[in-house]
Amino acid sequence: MAITRGPKRTTARAEEPLAARDPEARRAALLSSGARAFAAKGYEASSVNDIARDAGVSVGTLFKYFPDKAALLEAVLADIEHDFVAAMSRPEIHVGPYPDRLPAMMRALFGLAARREHFFWALTSGTHALRGPRSAQPGDAIRAAIERFVREGIARGEMRDVGDPGRVAAVAFGMVEAAMRGCFVLEEGRNRESWVRLTADLLGRLVSR
After folding, report:
1. Which of 6, 19, 99, 178 is 20 to 30 A from 186 (CA-CA)?
2. The pTM is what?
3. How many angstroms separate the CA atoms of 168 and 161, rounded?
4. pLDDT of 20 strictly over 90
5. Within a 10 A sphere around the Cβ of 111, how many other Cβ atoms?
């Protein structure tokens, strides 16, 4: 007589997605889901319920990592800013005279924007959603990295001292933001290398001796 077996049983742990078991993967999933929601719907229209569902966790789990939606947005922006600064700081970029490093740096940043989902949103629209009396404002880490680059170039006599390096960094950040908007919004990522060369040339004109 044939023996009929029921469906194979699995443990609840085996059925759970990785994000539900690994704290780091869970946090990464929430950051990714938050970035998708904020970019698609805007900050105000995005709900923590939808973000948690998309990440495969409960709302309660989301609040264990982030006390509110603003904290999640702040973490999303900090994560993307970290990638921006890391791309600027790659060792292979920092070879030769400072102005000559700009094309490689812009190529790395535009490449990151093309690969990293929602990067451009965070660089532009996302940074405007978190304004207020905070010790650090969105974009501060990026501007600080640019300012360090400018100060080092001036100190080595390879860049022109055109005034307060902090203001130069703010202008440079605005130029990169505008160029990325032209490349990825107006031209949908086409002609990326042309935008890279143009941005590097304009920045070089700003600081070259």
Report:
1. 99
2. 0.75
3. 10
4. no
5. 13
Residue type, 34: G
Separation between Cα atoms, residue 20 and residue 57, nearest integer Å: 6
- State the amino acid at position 107 in one-letter form: R
Q: Are 80 and 123 in contact (CB under 8 A)?
A: yes
Query: What CA–CA distance (Å, rounded) separates 15 from 56?
Result: 12
3-state SS of 18-85 is HHHHCHHHHHHHHHHHHHHHHHHHCCCCCCHHHHHHHHCCCHHHHHHHCCCHHHHHHHHHHHHHHHHH
Query: DSSP 3-state assignment of 207?
Result: helix
Per-residue pLDDT tens for 91-133?
A: 999 999 998 999 999 999 999 888 876 776 666 655 555 554 4
pLDDT averaged over the chain? 83
Residues 6 or more apart whose CB falls under 8 angstroms from that of 82 comprise 141
Tell me how far apart the alpha carbons of residues 42 and 127 are, in angstroms, rounded to a whole number: 12
Which domains does the chain possess? 16-67 (1.10.10.60), 76-207 (1.10.357.10)
Q: What distance in Å separates the CA atoms of residue 4 and residue 92, rounded to the nearest whole number?
A: 64
146, 89 in Cβ contact below 8 A?
A: no
208 forms bridges with which residues in the sheet? 159
Q: What's the chain's length in residues?
A: 209
